[in-house]
Design a protein that fits this description.
- The protein is globular, with a radius of gyration of 23 Å.
- The chain has 342 residues and is mainly beta.
- Helices cover 9% and strands 29% of the residues.
């Protein structure tokens, strides 16, 4: 975990790009936007062709209606969630950044298992083509002057918003539109039901900012309430876990339901913001969670093992991959993970 201290010019706001599992290099970028009134899209249409412009003009907790790909008829007949925005003529814009407030509504877990069953039946019948994903990745596309949708490069693809709690983040569209377009039209496509509360357009230059990353000065692990969870395995012992929170190194604080980590960050060495600068704070964490089977825990039992790791290709991973059981990681497992539940 870390605390990002961001100093930025007065008259600007700062947002992150959130997490993008498609491209780790695009994760956690911080963008400046104007504190003034942002531009509004000219039109906004969902996958049903419905006009949802009025819904996204204000950040008011009123979200666009959407669909969930889980409800599609078959693996080869997927109805995906879409939002198509006409941003107008932005040919004179210095940069193009969307400020978006959105969240993902997964829906009930049962629909996910029904979807997986459809996919698995098709696979058993030999009609699934090679490398066909169970769940298509989210995509960002822009419209050419000839009316052709072109997908943004992999390193510019969109994040999937957080679930059930809306977050505001920035999507950087600068440089993605062809030079000859006069209307800047973008389309977001998601398998999951992504619903949007607000979309604004910022066209100002990215400002110079100063970012200071602070590691926890103290991290204490404790129990907040007792749990009747059936989760099993070797969980982290309570007490001081400051060492484990310093780096992204696959050495986790492993908790059951009811556990908590209290973090402290020492700010005493920070200088005051420079003249004409103001300060914001971002909390950043590298983490993983498991749900029980029949909820969202597809592919594993409700156990600590197998442990996830940063370089895995996916989860659950095959026998060709493994958590790094080298000397350092074995020492961590033996020293910290002393609470055994069978």
């Amino acid at each position: 975990a870390s605390l990002l201290v961001v100093d930025h010019p007065v008259g600007t706001d700062v947002y992150t790009s959130m997490t993008n599992y498609l491209n780790k290099g695009y994760t956690g970028q911080i963008y400046t936007t104007s504190t003034g009134t942002l531009l509004a899209p000219i039109s906004a249409v969902n996958e049903k062709g419905e006009n949802v412009l009025s819904t996204i003009l204000l950040q008011d907790g009123n979200f666009t209606p959407g669909v969930n790909g889980n409800d599609s008829p078959a693996w080869d007949n997927i109805v995906q969630n879409q939002l198509t925005l006409n941003l107008g003529d932005l040919s004179q814009a210095d940069q193009i950044k969307l400020v978006m407030t959105a969240m993902a509504d997964w829906g009930p877990a049962e629909t996910y298992y029904d979807w997986l069953s459809k996919f698995e039946i098709a696979a058993a019948n030999g009609i699934i083509t090679e490398n066909t994903p169970m769940v298509p990745n989210p995509t960002l596309e822009v419209l050419t002057a000839d009316g052709i949708w072109i997908e943004a490069p992999q390193d510019r693809q969109i994040p999937l918003p957080s679930d059930y709690t809306a977050r505001t983040f920035v999507v950087d569209l600068t440089g993605l539109f062809p030079k000859d377009v006069t209307e800047y039209v973008v389309r977001f496509t998601n398998f999951w039901n992504v619903t949007y509360d607000y979309v604004g357009i910022d066209t100002t230059f990215q400002q110079d900012i100063t970012i200071t990353s602070l590691k926890p000065s103290l991290a204490m692990f404790s129990q907040l309430w007792e749990t009747s969870s059936e989760s099993t395995g070797a969980f982290t012992r309570y007490g001081n876990v400051t060492e484990l929170m310093q780096e992204t190194d696959d050495m986790f604080v492993i908790g059951r339901q009811g556990d908590r980590v209290n973090l402290q960050f020492y700010l005493g060495d920070l200088l005051a913001p420079a003249e004409e600068m103001e300060r914001d704070y971002f909390f950043v964490v590298a983490c993983w969670f498991k749900d029980p089977p029949e909820e969202w825990g597809y592919g594993f039992t409700f156990t600590v093992d197998p442990l996830p790791f940063m370089d895995m290709s996916g989860f659950p991973y095959s026998n060709a991959e493994s958590y790094p059981y080298d000397e350092a990681h074995l020492a961590y497992l033996n020293e910290y993970n002393m609470r055994i539940f069978l």
